[in-house]
Amino acid sequence: MSEQTTAPTTVILFGATGDLAKRKLIPGMLHLFQSKLLDDLRVVGTSLDELSPDEFRKLAHTAIREFSTRELDEDEWHEFAQRLDFVPNSAGPKALGDAVRAAEAQLPGDTELRLHYLSVPPKAALSAIQTIGEADLVDRSRIVMEKPFGTDYASAVELNRRVHEVFREEQVFRIDHFLGKEPAQNILAFRFANGLFEPIWHRNNIAHVQIDVPETLGLSTRGDFYENTGAYRDMVVTHLFQILAFTAMEPPTSLEPAAISREKNKVFESMQPIQPNDVVRGQYLGYLDEPGVAPDSDTETFVALKCYIDNWRWAGVPFFLRTGKRMAEGARIISIAFNEPPQSMFPPGSGVGDHGPDHLTFDLADKARMSLSFYGKRPGPGMKLDKLSMQFAMQDTTWAGAVLEAYERLIYDAVRGDHTLFTSAEGVERLWEVSQPLLDNPPVVRPYAPDTYGPNQIHQLVAPHTWRLPFERKWRDKNPDPGPQSPIEGGARP
Ligand SMILES: NC(=O)C1=CN([C@@H]2O[C@H](COP(=O)(O)OP(=O)(O)OC[C@H]3O[C@@H](n4cnc5c(N)ncnc54)[C@H](OP(=O)(O)O)[C@@H]3O)[C@@H](O)[C@H]2O)C=CC1
Ligand SMILES: O=C1O[C@H](COP(=O)(O)O)[C@@H](O)[C@H](O)[C@H]1O
What pTM does this model have? Predict the structure, then answer.
């Protein structure tokens, strides 16, 4: 993740009027421009909508007002707006090429970068790539692709083959926005910058790992997209497996993108194929009534699974992954459960072990947090133990304002040519390969009530362990009210 200066860049935004573009990409590019991380920037939007450049600027302005989390300075907006152009898809590749060349003429130097961002539905990706070729915009370019990268092993291989007909692999940036989240990158810092944890980061000390991403939102607006996707393809193959790779990989030989990518791919190579018996699929009650959903749909809106990484570090350690829609809470946690001591010298009733093993927990929320829980003695006579914890919240530091939103970070890295947080063709294909037994033979979909943690079968899946969520104890409030019964940690221990 080395720092480099960025070349003057024209972003060619395919799907510029879509949901992702409006919510994340346009506000994100404005912030990169304002913060001078990308100050020599031009944007040429394109989509099926018949907009004029002025109408596109208006759409961008509205999107920024609605979705940007930062104050909009009108002077800066006007400066940014002058850098936006739009060419409808119907105008054809030549018109798009001309607009990009006109934008480049406004940039300094003669080595401008073209960053094609494909924020389009998967079925439109190959036609966008064809347009790029016909518009003669492949030279000096990189391409950012949005998931899903295929829907199974064969389609992933075919998609990569077609992409490679136009772009070399080093030009391709397959985005996984979870890896762009600041706390996800902090896993690498935490593991490899400290002498404390890496020596115990293996099967001798770790009983199991959970990567748990429940969501409260339903699918009332995305039913037709989701029907052909489901929770496994939408979240597990893309985001959760990438987080797993950061959690499980060996130390890379350096912090260079190729070295990190190599170690991630080795984790995927060591993954055992996902067995249908180790998977619980669920569908929330009411999904069948959502617009765009087939009345007899068996698309899963929930998935929980157990998987194994068959290498020296992780042999026999289960990794439990779970995600779903309309669940009881929205969270993104990684939880490392440590082995319990081989023997207990504490008397029955002392409380040791009553609250599960010691845990190291990463909360990948925008307000990132981390916690290490352990047993300690309650003050006073006798030997009563309770679960205590050390907690860290990024929000309590002076760094909180410096956090880049995931898409900002990823666009910036793609412009710098840094592949660290992106997925390789090889990695994607391997993940579909290990998924194939499940895709070929999916277990029955179980109903679950909205606002729960999924179907009952999730408990059998994780036994003899238990799911961390819902947390037995809440994250610590910065200013807790220490009631008379509160133990020394202030009553807010995970
Ligand atoms: N929305 C999100 O939060 C996330 C989205 N993604 C991924 O981002 C991509 C885009 O998603 P999203 O923005 O939600 O989708 P939308 O359907 O909201 O937007 C898609 C955009 O692509 C345009 N488009 C459709 N077909 C073509 C085509 N053949 N040529 C050129 N433009 C086309 C649409 O134009 P028009 O509006 O005129 O139809 C629209 O502007 C998908 O791959 C999705 O998986 C990934 C993570 C999160
Ligand atoms: O890619 C996707 O991610 C979102 C969840 O992302 P987050 O950053 O909001 O946690 C998910 O809702 C969506 O279904 C999926 O396509």
Answer: 0.91
